[in-house]
Amino acid sequence: MSTTLPAPAPAAAHAPAARARTYLVKTLGCQMNVHDSEHMAGLLEEAGYVPAPAADAAVEDVDVLVINTCAVRENAADRLYGNLGRLAGTKRSRPGGMQIAVGGCLAQKDRTGIVERAPWVDVVFGTHNIDVLPSLLERARHNAQAEVEIAESLQVFPSTLPTRRESVYAGWVSISVGCNNTCTFCIVPHLRGKERDRRPGDVLAEVEALVAQGAIEVTLLGQNVNSYGVGFGDRHAFAKLLRSVGAVPGLERVRFTSPHPAAFTDDVIEAMAATPTVMPQLHMPLQSGSDRVLRAMRRSYRAERFLAILDRVRAAVPDAAITTDVIVGFPGETEEDFAETLRVVEASRFASAFTFQYSPRPGTPAADLPDQLPKAVVQERYERLQALQERISGEENAAQVGRRVDVLVAQGEGRKDADTARLSGRAADNRLVHLALPPGLDASQAPRPGDLVTVEITRSAPHHLVADSALTPGGTFAVRRTRAGDAWQARVEGREEHAAAGASSCGTGAPAPAGPVVLGLPGLGAPTR
């Protein structure tokens, strides 16, 4: 579907031709959206745009601002239109003008409604046609019209598009797009389409290219990764892929998200246990502990099956940290149903959980169900669930005190790092660790993002661990400088060169320094599976 709508004359057309136009991509939603934003950034750089300098990006002083949207929950839509309302004034006041583009799941859903509600938007494009972004921007500038183009099916597999990676030491790799499940609360299959799997050789080639560029960690992405292989008739394909990716020389950490409990098989558990590079971490969406609610959700598993999967994972991978998604207040949920959810959460001992208040999404079967619950009831149950999980997370993290862990140092993980003089990163089980440096450590020997540091956990909180072992004489602290750290340092030192060079067209090009901006939604995904 392609539609041209009136829009304010784009002042960006008067921007000086002598300089490259700057851009910023902002992301609402899950890791799939973050990875899509990397493709959007790569496409823009291939078309000659450059990332906005950090100071300009912070105040949205850019020629092109792209918002990649989520449609899973109502507050994501509220967040989009709140951003657009604020940007109307920014666009009017910017001397050089700017273009605003909206893409992603909410764009696929609302279509022309976005421009009708926010007529200062220049471009709207959907989940199936990311590749048209640069041409739509150019067309909107040339015609002084808003351009809306929504494809009904996937036009180009996203992984074949140019990519500006957010990180050089860790990367996302899509193994499939779309979803074949029919969960009554979820709008994702409608917006992303039926599952389409990449061939294993293509996935491996992308992983190998990432490793060649310096990455030592990859996360395999799919709406339902353990149904991978449905497109080419191999029900064991995901376990085989885990083993193959885990054997790529130079790759040290493999993660994946998210599986569906109904399709989670023992061969995947065996692959996790037998492949040292597959990390002891699992994100397994529960959604509800009530069998009656699970049936109403069309989740084709029951609570005891879910718990049995966790038991088998922990038997094979004893140190596995398991996380989840839970929805509170699904239509018709009784106090007895909610009590079952609390029981299963208590028994599951999740390291953390993304908890959501049910949000009716127009176009989903659940939105038309009777017995939609009052907000006050949902809020009270939500707070009880949060309190329970906060206690469990605190207890599980407290059990980590005294353990030695290897932390992959990250960039931008710790909000208070500048105040505490700590670095932050992820342990093998994906727990967030803030680590202290030894007094007097020479700056040239300090760990870089992408390096691995062995430390001892000295303190815990429900959402993070602290490793101050380096502050004790003789305490545990060892740095392993890695190829990934070298790649990060090379990118920083070549900042101007990278920014001017643009992205590779092979789909795995090294990123320019600044990555897409994520607008504060959970990174492990919303209840979409």
Automatic annotation (TrEMBL):
<dbReference type="GO" id="GO:0051539">
    <property type="term" value="F:4 iron, 4 sulfur cluster binding"/>
</dbReference>
<protein>
    <recommendedName>
        <fullName>tRNA-2-methylthio-N(6)-dimethylallyladenosine synthase</fullName>
        <ecNumber>2.8.4.3</ecNumber>
    </recommendedName>
</protein>
<feature type="domain" description="Radical SAM core">
    <location>
        <begin position="165"/>
        <end position="395"/>
    </location>
</feature>
<feature type="domain" description="MTTase N-terminal">
    <location>
        <begin position="21"/>
        <end position="142"/>
    </location>
</feature>
<feature type="compositionally biased region" description="Low complexity">
    <location>
        <begin position="500"/>
        <end position="516"/>
    </location>
</feature>
<dbReference type="InterPro" id="IPR006638">
    <property type="entry name" value="Elp3/MiaA/NifB-like_rSAM"/>
</dbReference>
<dbReference type="InterPro" id="IPR002792">
    <property type="entry name" value="TRAM_dom"/>
</dbReference>
<feature type="domain" description="TRAM">
    <location>
        <begin position="398"/>
        <end position="471"/>
    </location>
</feature>
<comment type="subunit">
    <text>Monomer.</text>
</comment>
<dbReference type="InterPro" id="IPR023404">
    <property type="entry name" value="rSAM_horseshoe"/>
</dbReference>
<keyword id="KW-0408">Iron</keyword>
<keyword id="KW-0479">Metal-binding</keyword>
<feature type="binding site">
    <location>
        <position position="70"/>
    </location>
    <ligand>
        <name>[4Fe-4S] cluster 1</name>
    </ligand>
</feature>
<comment type="function">
    <text>Catalyzes the methylthiolation of N6-(dimethylallyl)adenosine (i(6)A), leading to the formation of 2-methylthio-N6-(dimethylallyl)adenosine (ms(2)i(6)A) at position 37 in tRNAs that read codons beginning with uridine.</text>
</comment>
<feature type="binding site">
    <location>
        <position position="105"/>
    </location>
    <ligand>
        <name>[4Fe-4S] cluster 1</name>
    </ligand>
</feature>
<dbReference type="GO" id="GO:0046872">
    <property type="term" value="F:metal ion binding"/>
</dbReference>
<feature type="binding site">
    <location>
        <position position="179"/>
    </location>
    <ligand>
        <name>[4Fe-4S] cluster 2</name>
    </ligand>
</feature>
<dbReference type="Pfam" id="PF04055">
    <property type="entry name" value="Radical_SAM"/>
</dbReference>
<feature type="binding site">
    <location>
        <position position="30"/>
    </location>
    <ligand>
        <name>[4Fe-4S] cluster 1</name>
    </ligand>
</feature>
<feature type="binding site">
    <location>
        <position position="183"/>
    </location>
    <ligand>
        <name>[4Fe-4S] cluster 2</name>
    </ligand>
</feature>
<feature type="binding site">
    <location>
        <position position="186"/>
    </location>
    <ligand>
        <name>[4Fe-4S] cluster 2</name>
    </ligand>
</feature>
<keyword id="KW-0963">Cytoplasm</keyword>
<dbReference type="GO" id="GO:0005829">
    <property type="term" value="C:cytosol"/>
</dbReference>
<comment type="similarity">
    <text>Belongs to the methylthiotransferase family. MiaB subfamily.</text>
</comment>
<keyword id="KW-0819">tRNA processing</keyword>
<dbReference type="InterPro" id="IPR013848">
    <property type="entry name" value="Methylthiotransferase_N"/>
</dbReference>
<dbReference type="InterPro" id="IPR007197">
    <property type="entry name" value="rSAM"/>
</dbReference>
<keyword id="KW-0949">S-adenosyl-L-methionine</keyword>
<dbReference type="InterPro" id="IPR058240">
    <property type="entry name" value="rSAM_sf"/>
</dbReference>
<dbReference type="GO" id="GO:0035597">
    <property type="term" value="F:tRNA-2-methylthio-N(6)-dimethylallyladenosine(37) synthase activity"/>
</dbReference>
<keyword id="KW-0411">Iron-sulfur</keyword>
<keyword id="KW-0808">Transferase</keyword>
<dbReference type="Pfam" id="PF00919">
    <property type="entry name" value="UPF0004"/>
</dbReference>
<dbReference type="InterPro" id="IPR006463">
    <property type="entry name" value="MiaB_methiolase"/>
</dbReference>
<keyword id="KW-0004">4Fe-4S</keyword>
<dbReference type="InterPro" id="IPR038135">
    <property type="entry name" value="Methylthiotransferase_N_sf"/>
</dbReference>
<feature type="region of interest" description="Disordered">
    <location>
        <begin position="495"/>
        <end position="516"/>
    </location>
</feature>
<dbReference type="InterPro" id="IPR020612">
    <property type="entry name" value="Methylthiotransferase_CS"/>
</dbReference>
<dbReference type="InterPro" id="IPR005839">
    <property type="entry name" value="Methylthiotransferase"/>
</dbReference>
